[in-house]
């Protein structure tokens, strides 16, 4: 894999041209899936028991997103805590559910996941090196990772100012490797003035946004990027994030190598699995309670 000089202009982009045929295939099969009648898509619908599969009423911070999606695990099956309650030690097995149509959907998605996983490990190495640690420092930590992928379909909407494809949020992952088509719509919040900046479209490039776990590990050297998606008034859009998560049993805290007397840990330790479960149930339905955020674990 070659890293493009784009990264000198904008560190969010990784140019990986060899992935183009795979991107084309997954986009084609995803479009075929989302073009199916709703009743058929709902045969692979996620529910209270299985969080994977088709979903058409995603909420970000209690507001319904203008999109439909299909979630699947990179490793099937995956083990996660049964509940977000801290005193419940039980785990449960979650598994992918695949639609019967299009027939190649499963193979194409699994092949894509395998390839992007390799890219994610490469990114992990670069992140470790960039904070002064050996390239493989975090690798063993991901051995039983609970990552999942999401195929997003944002239908066109004639009044794009009235809805958001995905409301503003930060990803809870270590980082996310995102592929998108040529329509555009992803925006990142600029910290200095809070303005929403459109992410430039670079055909065949992946976008990586750092998530909450990396913010904690790096003791705030890196920040989880706040982002959102606007919809297009005439074109539908597809995007496929790979949310790279450590295993459920990882206790997240600033890496010991990065803390000292001058630079004390800014977060107390917390369990990744419980954090994941709180996050991934919170968008299932409207909720009355506040979303768990990493600042709840902040020491100062
Ligand atoms: O569609 C996109 O570009 C980003 C989607 C996203 O932020 C997410 O699914 O977490
Ligand atoms: Fe996101």
UniProtKB/TrEMBL annotation:
Keywords: Iron, Metal-binding, Oxidoreductase. It comes from the Eukaryota. InterPro entries: DIOX_N, IPNS-like_FE2OG_OXY, IPNS-like_sf, Oxoglu/Fe-dep_dioxygenase_dom. SUPFAM superfamilies: Clavaminate synthase-like (SSF51197). GO terms for molecular function: dioxygenase activity; metal ion binding. It holds the Pfam family DIOX_N. Residues 145-246 form the Fe2OG dioxygenase domain. Transmembrane segments: none annotated. Belongs to the iron/ascorbate-dependent oxidoreductase family. This is Fe2OG dioxygenase domain-containing protein. It comes from Acer yangbiense.
């Amino acid at each position: 894999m070659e890293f493009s000089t784009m990264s000198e202009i904008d560190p969010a982009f990784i140019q990986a041209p060899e992935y183009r045929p795979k991107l084309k295939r997954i986009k084609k099969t995803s479009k075929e899936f989302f073009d199916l009648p709703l009743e058929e898509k709902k045969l692979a619908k996620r529910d209270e028991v299985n969080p994977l599969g088709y979903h058409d009423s995603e909420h970000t911070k209690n507001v319904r997103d203008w999109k439909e999606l299909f979630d699947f695990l990179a490793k099937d099956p995956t083990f996660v805590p049964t509940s977000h309650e801290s005193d419940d030690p039980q785990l449960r097995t979650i598994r992918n559910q695949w639609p019967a149509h299009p027939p190649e959907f499963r193979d194409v998605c699994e092949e894509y996941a395998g390839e992007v996983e390799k890219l994610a490990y490469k990114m992990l190495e670069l992140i470790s090196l960039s904070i002064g640690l050996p390239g493989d420092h975090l690798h063993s930590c991901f051995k039983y990772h609970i990552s999942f992928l999401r195929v997003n379909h944002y239908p066109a909407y004639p009044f794009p100012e009235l809805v958001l494809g995905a409301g503003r949020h930060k990803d809870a992952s270590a980082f996310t490797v995102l592929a998108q088509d040529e329509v555009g719509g992803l925006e990142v919040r600029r910290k200095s003035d809070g303005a929403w900046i459109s992410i430039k479209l670079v055909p065949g490039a992946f976008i990586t946004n750092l998530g909450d776990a990396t913010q904690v590990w790096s003791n705030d050297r890196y920040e989880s990027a706040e982002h959102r998606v606007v919809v297009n008034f005439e074109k539908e859009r597809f995007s496929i994030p790979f949310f790279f998560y450590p295993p459920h049993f990882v206790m997240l805290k600033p890496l010991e190598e990065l803390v000292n007397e001058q630079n004390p840990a800014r977060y107390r330790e917390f369990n990744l699995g419980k954090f994941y479960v709180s996050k991934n149930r919170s968008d299932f339905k409207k909720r009355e309670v506040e979303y768990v955020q990493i600042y709840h674990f902040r020491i100062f």
